[in-house]
Structures are given as structure tokens and as C-alpha cells.
Design a protein that fits this description.
The complex is a heterodimer of chains A (about 270) and B (about 325). Helices cover about 75% and strands about 0% of the residues of chain A. By secondary structure, chain A is mainly alpha-helical. Chain A has one domain (about 65-235, about 245-270): Orthogonal Bundle (MetI-like fold). Chain B folds into two domains: about 1-60; about 85-310, MetI-like fold. Chain B is built from 14 helices and two strands; from the N terminus they run H-H-E-E-H-H-H-H-H-H-H-H-H-H-H-H. Chain B is flat, with a radius of gyration of 27 Å. The chains are: A mainly alpha (about 270), B mainly alpha (about 325).
């Protein structure tokens, strides 16, 4: 490889990295300016106001938000993973009669944009008396995740050799034993990736929270951030500090689980 | 299948028949259990996705303010959505966003991925992969807030332009009729570039290195390699990138809601946001639903041919 190519290539990548990081850097320096002022885009303040973060932490009610988002993730992800794993197993491995039709039915929802059904969802959730509760986000999300999750788990189970199950059958294993004792342990990597994906998607879900839940303290992180922006749109330093705080959990989790994250999101988009 | 094996079993001798019967019984038991295992997933899917989808179609045939009595209007809402100037602009905006989200993200993604894979193989390449992927992880709402500030009148973009002597063209990029939509498009590129890059990188890992070696021997440069080996080998990955980015463009909501609210005027209004506004602010549930149905169909019309092209499993 010629040296000049390497240098040019590196320069291109470095510029792109800077552009990618630019909004984060700008948020950071802006957050350190006096509350209510209008600083320049990137400008290190003479007197950094670290207290802005503490104030944003307070006004955004961070502990409550973290708690609310966590409840929603805990309410959505384990159930979604469990029922889609069972369905994927039945469709992909047991091949029950009608499996193909069922699979196509789930596929139907794979490209469906949420905006396409958000209006009736509102009236549906209202008729259940669940508006403004976390269940208003949890229940529809589980349903919305089914097309992708079933597709994902089926893709795993369809590739498992049937000899494995036949051997277990001869030993008298019931269908449930077969699923729980043999196939779930083998499906662990697929289940782990699905879990990561659903956690991120739930944490970042905005539209459902916006439409179905008025109270920011009952929302997902993204939904709460939307409300925060509504309140403090004119106080740019405080808004920047709040946005950074709300970003932080996602960022930390990403940096810690980077490898699994990238792998999961990748497989997710390949299969989705 | 059970019927066929039962017919076959009748022709067999007795021990075999008995064996088949017990197998059949096991099979039926498995079917029973199998259906039970599908049931919960199917139930939530039917209640929270398929049912609303059917109701959307139903709503789209009525005029309804969401509270009072509704009035049957047939296909009139669809006529409005497909002929009214404003709606046409909104749909056009969505397609313009596809150009940005798809063409730039995938094109640039190809360049970056081949740089990382073939040219800058060291630490800079690895770092670029991680950094470019970052926007994929954070809430789009946060991206919207950050970029509104970056593109604001006193934001970084104008600051940089001023510093390099282009102070004359500084403006509020998201507030101008001419630049707002491209600006939103570039925010989309910022979000999607890393995903495309890493996807394409994975595809490149599967290309046989011998292909590159023989091209080198034939005297091909990096640019020729790119067009004659890299791009054709990545057909499937490119198709996936286009699918993901096209859906992200057509169904965009979060970024537009936060950064421009659809403005100025209708310059950045997209179908998703308009559906939200019509249904929950303007109380025109019927019209919102007609637009929703059109959006769902548009996504299918755009995505299905791409899937065909790759000849993979039907999506």
C-alpha cells in the first residue's frame, strides 16, 4: 500500500470522526456556560459551570426517569424474548401445521412503520383504561416487537438439526423438555443478541411515549428527553446538560458492551 | 403430511404400522404443544398490531374528530392525500429524505468501509468504526437536540464557516426553506453512516482476498478494485443498507419532531409527523389514517423490489 493513500485515507476518516463527535463536543462545552446564556457553538467558558449538570440532574428528575425507563425495559424485554423464542421454536423447528402461514403473518408486520398504527393504538389503549400508565407503552411494544423477534428466533431454530430432537424424543422427552432443556440452552447467543436489541429499542422509544403517556416520569428515557426539551428549549446550556445526562446511560452501556452491541445491531439489520 | 403418512402406513405390515401410529401420536402432541407455544406471541401481535392496522383502514374511510360521531366518506380522504398540494409536498419530502438517507449513507459507507478494510488498517480504522457507530446507540431525540444546536444561528457550523472566511453564508440552517430539508437529511446520514459502514465491513470480510491479489497483479489501483470487486461482491449487504435507510427515511419522526417540527412552513414535514399532527392536534383522525395507510403501502412499494433484487428470502 502506498504511503500517500494511507495518509489521505486516515485524514478522511479523522475528519469523519470529528464530524461525528462534533454534536457531543458542542453539547459539552455549551453545558458549561452560565444557565440561560447563548454561547457560541464550541467555546470553552472562562468559568465552567459544572453545577449545570447537577441542576439538570435535579430538574430532569434523573433518578425517577432512570427508574421509569428501567421498569419499562424490564416489563417489555423478558416477556418479548420468552414468547418470541417459543413461537420461533414452534414455527421454525416443530414446523406445526400452518407454520408457513403463521410465519408469513408475522412477516407482514416486519416493515410496518409505527406511525401506520399509532392512531388506533391510542384509542385501543384508551379503551383499556391504560392511557398515562407505563402499561400503555409496555403492552403495545411487546406486540410491535413480535414480527422481528419471531423472525429472528425462527431463523435460529430453522437451522437446528432435527436429529437432535428425534434423539431426545426416543428418550421420551416431551415437547416442553425438548424446548427448555435442549434448544433454549443452544439458542443462547441468538437470545442474547435479541435481548440487547430490544433493550436499546425500548430505551429509545419516543413516539409511543409521546402519544400514550403525558407524564414524563412514566415515560421512556427518550420520551422524557422530549418533554425536557419542551420545557427548557430556550435555556440552551441547561438543555445541553440535560441531553448529555440522558445520553450517558446509553453511552456507557455501549462502550462497555461494544462488541456484543455492534454484533447484535448488525445481525438485527441483516435479518430485519 | 399426517394424512399422507397414515395412508402409507395402511400398506405396511403390522409392526411398522404400530410404530407409525406411536410416531403420529407424538407428532400430534407436538402440534398441540407447538400451537400453545405460538399462542402468546400471536395474541399480542394480533391485538396490538394487526387489529390496529385493520382499524386504521377502517378509520381512513370516515371523517371523525376523535370524539363525536363519525361520518362515512368513502375514499375521499385518499383523494385528499393524493391530490392536495400540501400532502404531495409531504410525500415528496419523504422521498427526498430517501435520497439523503440512502444514497449518501450507503455511498459514503462504502468508501469508509473500504478505507478501513483495505487502506487504513491500523488503529485509526478501528477507532473510526467505533466512533461512527456511536450515533446508532443514542436516542434519536438526543441527536435531534444536539443537531438543532449545531445548526443554529450561533452554532458550531456557522462558527466554523466564519472562521474559514465564509461568514457571509451563515444562517439558521434548520429555519430556512431552502436548507432545512437537506439539513435534516444530513442529520439522518450522521445517524446511519456507522451502521452502513459496519454492515458493509462485515460483507467485505467474506470477500475472497485472492480476488484482490489477482487484480493487483493485473495492475488495478484501489479505485478499480473498489468498482470491479468490492461493490459487486457486496450486493446483499448494499441491499440491506438500502432497505434499512429507506425505511428510516420514509418513517422518520423523532429527529424531525425535535429539530424542526416540520417547519419552516411544510419544508421538512414528513408523513409520520403529519399523521401525528392530524390525529392528535388537528383532530382529523380519518385523514391521518388515510395518510397512514399510504405510508404503509409506500414502505412496501419501496422495500419489496429491493428484496427481490437480492433474490434472498422474501421479506
Amino acid at each position: 500500500m502506498q504511503r500517500r493513500e494511507v495518509v489521505t485515507g486516515s485524514l478522511v476518516l479523522i475528519v469523519l470522526m470529528l464530524v461525528t463527535l462534533l454534536p457531543f463536543i458542542s453539547l459539552f462545552t455549551t453545558a458549561l456556560h452560565p444557565s440561560g446564556s447563548v454561547p457560541l457553538g464550541i467555546d470553552w467558558p472562562a468559568n465552567p459551570q459544572w453545577g449545570n449538570f447537577a441542576r439538570a440532574f435535579q430538574v430532569a428528575d434523573m433518578p425517577v426517569l432512570l427508574f421509569s425507563s428501567t421498569i419499562i425495559v424490564v416489563g417489555v424485554v423478558p416477556i418479548s424474548v420468552a414468547i418470541s423464542t417459543m413461537a420461533g421454536f414452534a414455527i421454525g423447528h416443530l414446523r406445526i401445521p400452518g407454520a408457513r402461514a403463521l410465519f408469513l403473518l408475522f412477516l407482514l408486520g416486519l416493515t410496518l412503520p409505527l406511525e401506520g398504527i399509532i392512531t388506533p393504538l391510542y384509542y385501543l389503549v384508551q379503551s383499556f383504561g391504560l392511557l398515562n400508565t407505563r402499561l400503555a407503552i409496555i403492552l403495545p411494544l411487546i406486540g410491535l416487537y413480535m414480527p422481528f423477534s419471531v423472525y429472528w428466533m425462527r431463523a435460529h431454530f430453522v437451522n437446528m438439526p432435527s436429529e437432535l430432537s428425534e434423539a431426545a424424543r426416543v428418550d421420551g422427552a416431551s415437547t416442553w423438555d425438548l424446548f427448555w432443556r435442549i434448544h433454549v440452552p443452544l439458542a443462547r447467543p441468538a437470545i442474547a443478541s435479541l435481548t440487547i436489541l430490544l433493550c436499546v429499542w425500548t430505551w429509545n422509544q419516543f413516539l409511543l411515549a409521546l402519544v400514550l403517556v403525558q407524564d414524563p416520569t412514566q415515560r421512556t428515557m427518550a420520551g422524557a428527553l422530549g418533554a425536557f426539551q419542551g420545557h427548557y428549549a430556550t435555556n440552551i446550556p441547561l438543555l445541553s446538560a440535560g441531553a448529555l445526562l440522558i445520553l450517558l446511560p446509553s453511552l456507557i452501556v455501549f462502550l462497555v458492551f461494544q462488541r456484543q452491541f455492534v454484533a447484535a445491531l448488525l445481525q438485527g439489520s441483516v435479518k430485519g | 403430511m399426517p394424512a399422507a403418512s397414515a395412508a402409507g402406513a395402511r400398506a405396511q405390515d403390522r409392526p411398522a404400522t404400530a410404530l407409525r401410529r406411536s410416531r403420529l401420536r407424538a407428532l400430534r402432541r407436538a402440534n398441540w404443544a407447538g400451537w400453545l407455544m405460538v399462542a402468546p406471541a400471536l395474541l399480542v401481535y394480533v391485538i396490538f398490531v394487526l387489529q390496529p392496522l385493520v382499524i386504521t383502514v377502517q378509520y381512513s374511510l370516515y371523517r371523525w374528530d376523535g370524539i363525536g360521531a363519525s361520518q362515512w366518506v368513502g375514499l375521499q380522504n385518499y383523494v385528499t392525500v393524493l391530490t392536495d398540494q400540501n400532502f404531495i409536498q409531504i410525500l415528496t419530502n419523504a422521498f427526498q429524505l430517501i435520497l439523503f438517507f440512502c444514497v449518501i449513507s450507503v455511498g459514503l459507507g462504502l468508501v469508509v468501509a473500504s478505507l478501513i478494510r483495505r487502506v487504513v488498517t491500523g488503529r485509526v480504522g478501528t477507532a473510526a468504526r467505533t466512533v461512527l457507530f456511536l450515533p446508532q446507540v443514542i436516542p434519536l431525540v438526543a441527536a435531534g437536540i444536539a443537531w438543532s444546536w449545531v445548526l443554529a444561528l450561533s452554532g458550531v457550523v456557522n462558527q466554523i464557516l466564519g472562521a474559514i472566511g465564509l461568514g457571509g453564508i451563515t444562517q439558521a440552517w434548520l429555519g430556512d426553506f431552502g436548507t432545512a430539508l437537506p439539513a435534516v437529511g444530513l442529520i439522518g446520514v450522521w445517524v446511519l453512516l456507522g451502521l452502513c459502514t459496519v454492515l458493509l465491513l462485515t460483507g467485505m470480510g467474506k470477500i475472497d482476498p485472492a480476488l484482490y491479489e489477482s487484480a493487483r497483479i493485473d495492475g488495478a489501483g484501489p479505485v478499480q478494485e473498489f468498482w470491479s470487486i468490492t461493490v459487486p461482491s457486496l450486493r446483499n449487504e448494499i441491499a440491506v443498507c438500502i432497505t434499512v435507510t429507506a425505511i428510516a427515511a420514509l418513517a422518520s419522526f423523532d429527529i424531525v419532531y425535535i429539530s424542526t417540527g416540520g417547519g419552516p412552513g411544510l419544508a421538512t414535514m414528513v408523513p409520520g409527523l403529519e399523521i401525528y399532527q392530524l390525529a392528535f392536534v388537528g383532530q382529523q383522525v380519518g385523514l391521518a389514517s388515510a395518510l397512514a395507510v399510504v405510508l404503509v403501502l409506500l414502505v412496501l412499494i419501496v422495500v419489496l423490489p429491493i428484496q427481490r433484487m437480492t433474490g434472498g428470502e422474501p421479506l
